[in-house]
Design a protein that fits this description.
Structural class: mainly beta
Radius of gyration: 13 Å
Mean pLDDT: 94
Number of helices: 0
Helix content: under 10%
Strand content: over 45%
Oligomer: single chain
Shape: globular
């Protein structure tokens, strides 16, 4: 059974940083493309970024390039999203997803950016 569990969300002030984690189980992590999405209240879900198998290629939404970094640890079946210089408009629920050979989502973790 595929499971994705996000953690690390919280309240931060603008320009601060936050690191989200995604612990996975039920599949061989390194064989799949993994992604982070976010959804702000009243808005559609937005792709934040993706990382290919074995972490070879990363892609990011233009709005987060240079500030967000996705990384993985295949031995730990874990993915992270390092978010720097956060902006108030980035308040959202952040989701870890596997949309490669299926459509799997975690429960999400809330990120609030406010002074």
């Amino acid at each position: 059974q595929v499971q994705l569990v996000e953690s690390g969300g919280g309240l931060v002030q603008p320009v601060e940083s936050l690191r989200l984690s995604c612990a996975t189980s039920g599949f061989t992590f390194r064989y799949y493309v993994m992604s982070w999405y976010r959804q702000a209240s009243g808005k559609e879900r937005e792709l934040v970024g993706s990382i290919t198998k074995d972490g070879g290629v990363r892609s990011y939404a233009d709005s987060v390039k240079g500030r967000f970094t996705i990384s993985i640890n295949n031995a730990k079946n874990t993915m992270w999203l390092q978010m720097n210089n956060l902006k108030p408009e980035e308040k959202a629920v952040y989701y870890c997803t596997r949309k490669d050979h299926g459509d799997y989502w975690g429960q999400g973790t809330q990120v609030t950016v406010s002074s």
